[in-house]
Design goal:
The chain folds into two domains: about 10-270, 3-Layer(aba) Sandwich (Carbamate kinase), CATH 3.40.1160; about 280-370, PUA domain (Archaeosine Trna-guanine Transglycosylase, Chain: A, domain 4, Roll). The chain has 14 helices and 13 strands. The protein has helices at about 15-20, 30-45, 55-65, 75-95, 110-115, 115-130, 155-165, 200-205, 215-230, 245-250, 270-275, 285-295, 335-345, 350-355; strands spanning about 10-15, 50-55, 100-105, 135-140, 170-175, 195, 235-240, 255-260, 280-285, 305-310, 315-320, 325-330, 370. A hairpin with a 5-residue loop joins strand 11 and strand 12 (about 325-330). The longest helix is centred in the N-terminal third of the chain and has 24 residues, at about 75-95. Bound molecules: adenosine-5'-diphosphate and ligand VHF. Ligand VHF binds next to helix 1, helix 3 and strand 4. It is found in: Cytoplasm. It holds the Pfam family PUA. Pathway: Amino-acid biosynthesis; L-proline biosynthesis; L-glutamate 5-semialdehyde from L-glutamate: step 1/2.
């Protein structure tokens, strides 16, 4: 089989903390220079590449002389602020040898959950790529709280792939790819060459982080592949230590684990909706509404809503559950939580009388709804 990167024009490459910092030993200049060489090679083939790089916390700890990863959020954030300086300096100096400019882009989940900021981030990244600049992306660790955290850069890499509608996501890590079990703990684990992204059996194979500086382990990589597939991006998980790995992948060599995007690509706005990691509230639907959504391709009307949880405003994303507690869909509401609680179980014709005004007959219009 040819590599899934052979035909990819736009590629997101994610490198993990363990690789960038040589397992917490400080920035690995040789490795970073080697990836910069390879990415420059791809750019010269007229491909567009975005780099999502971890390593700020690990590098900050090294610079501050901290031996153990701190638990306190303020200390982690301080380490990230110190380490991010080293990270971008290193990338800038390695890419400048190839005559390429780099740009630092730090994102939080809030930036991508807000539609305007999302579109802004997309347009900035596309402009940078059109200018031939390499965006170097990381989570904005210094300002994030648990509520707005991506949590790991595998997820961030997938969201960036969705954001710019990349053709492929390459996750470089300290293993050759995915094995049937964590190879650090199970030496007999079998290597997985190829699978469909999102196949349920993959999640059972993946364990947590094996290194002391990585955070997500293999599970977040498998989930990232599933997420990236929503915008049609294939995912490759490969070793960042494999010589010329990116160049070989782009030339068609099937190095690493290839996770093929098997599903139909979602429309851009629906992808954005699917990428919300946290929602403002939820509505519980009766069985008639579940059927209307699932089987008849209809919008969600207030009459099919039994109850409301959380506080949301018009235009925010909410989860739609059935009475048995299963999330069926998510969508953008036309009415706030307090308005919804007044019009639920009522026909749309009564909205004007109850609220004194009508915005829309639907609580969530079909165009603003995705089924899960
Ligand atoms: N099924 C698996 N196949 C390969 N690696 C696995 C698996 N399950 C868990 N792992 C662990 O995931 C680690 C990579 O994740 P992580 O430490 O978070 O690295 P990174 O910094 O690259 O994100 C590997 O070193 C390995 O120990
Ligand atoms: N934003 C953090 C990234 C943490 C993270 O996800 O690390 P990893 O699991 O190595 O990709 C940092 O730069 O340290």
């Amino acid at each position: 089989m040819d590599s899934l990167l052979l035909e990819a024009d736009c590629i997101v490459v994610k490198v993990g903390s363990s690789l960038v910092t040589n397992n917490g030993e400080g920035l690995d200049r040789q490795a970073i220079a080697a990836w910069a060489d390879q990415i420059s090679h791809l750019v010269k083939q007229s491909r567009q590449v975005v780099l999502v790089s971890s390593g700020a916390v690990a590098e900050g700890m090294q610079r501050l002389g901290w031996k153990k990863r701190p638990k306190a959020v303020n200390e982690l954030q301080a380490a990230a602020a110190v380490g991010q300086m080293g990270l971008v300096q290193m990338y800038e100096s390695c890419f400048s040898k190839h005559g390429l400019h780099t740009a630092q882009v730090l994102l939080t989940h809030d930036d991508l959950a807000d539609r305007k900021r999302y579109l802004n981030a997309r347009s900035t990244l596309r402009t940078l790529l059109d200018l031939g600049v390499i965006p170097i992306i990381n989570e904005n660790d210094t300002v994030v709280t648990d509520e707005i955290r991506f949590g790991d850069n595998d997820t961030l890499g997938a969201l960036v792939a969705n954001l710019i509608e990349a053709d492929a996501l390459v996750i470089l890590t300290d293993q050759q790819g995915l094995y049937s079990a964590d190879p650090r703990k199970n030496p007999d684990a079998q290597f997985i060459n190829h699978a469909v992204a999102g196949a349920p059996e993959l999640e059972a194979m993946a364990g947590g982080a094996g290194s002391s500086v990585g955070t997500g382990g293999m599970l977040t990589k498998i989930l990232a592949a599933k997420r990236a597939a929503r915008s049609g991006a294939h995912t490759v998980i490969a070793s960042g230590r494999e010589p010329q790995v990116l160049v070989r992948l782009a030339a068609g060599e099937a190095v690493g684990t290839h996770l093929q995007a098997g599903q139909v690509k979602l429309m851009a706005k629906k992808q954005w909706l699917a990428d919300h990691l946290r929602l403002s509230g939820k509505v519980i639907m009766d069985d008639g509404a579940v059927k209307a959504l699932r089987e008849d391709g209809k919008s969600l009307l207030p009459i099919g809503v039994l109850s409301v949880e959380g506080s949301f405003e018009r235009g925010e994303a909410v989860a739609c559950f059935d009475q048995r507690g299963q999330e069926i869909a998510r969508g953008l509401v036309n009415y706030s939580a307090s308005e919804t609680s007044r019009i639920l179980r009522k026909p749309s014709a009564d909205i004007a009388q109850i609220l004194g005004y009508v915005d829309e007959a639907e609580l969530i219009h079909r165009d603003n709804l995705i089924l899960l």
